[in-house]
Amino acid sequence: MAYTVLLLLSLMAAALGLGVAGYYWIADLALIDAIFNAAMILTGMGPASELSSTPAKLFASAYAIFSGLVFISLMGIFFAPIAHRIMHRFHMDDRGPDKQALRDE
């Protein structure tokens, strides 16, 4: 689980860094505003600053879609070991339609 949390944090930091860089250089926001906007978009809260240029709006749109996919992916990575442990707990890894049928015969 510690490895999974470390992986999640590093992927989240990379996604946040991408957003901060885009808001800083493309949208021409101050560094603190770029961090705030990227964090708000990444967590699904929505944009915080008004964007005026077309490249900035295009970046924000692409980053919002990217952030949605990152969120779904991170949740999958987070819950996979938990689901795996639950399956082991109930011995679901050695049961299946074909294996159960062979044992019953």
Folded structure, characterized:
There is one protein chain. It is elongated, with a radius of gyration of 21 Å. It has one domain (2-104): Helix Hairpins. It has four helices and no strands. It has helices at 2-25, 31-42, 54-89, 97-104. The protein is mostly helical and 105 residues long.
Short key terms for the protein model shown above:
105 residues; mainly alpha; Helix Hairpins; 76% helix
Summarize the helices and strands and which ones pair or pack.
Elements: H1 2-25, H2 31-42, H3 54-89, H4 97-104
Write a compact overview of the structure shown.
76% of the residues lie in helices and 0% in strands. It is mostly helical and 105 residues long.
Give the termini separation.
39 Å
- Overall residue-averaged pLDDT value: 87
- Whole-number tally of structural domains: 1
Order of helices and strands: HHHH
Quote the CATH topology: Helix Hairpins
* Number of E-type strands: 0
General shape: elongated
Indicate the radius of gyration in whole angstroms. Answer: 21 Å
Which architecture would the CATH scheme give at its second level? Orthogonal Bundle
Q: Indicate the proportion of strand residues.
A: under 5%
Task: Give the helix/strand class.
Answer: mainly alpha
At the first level of CATH, the class is Mainly Alpha
Helicity level, as a percent range? over 70%
| Low-pLDDT stretches | none
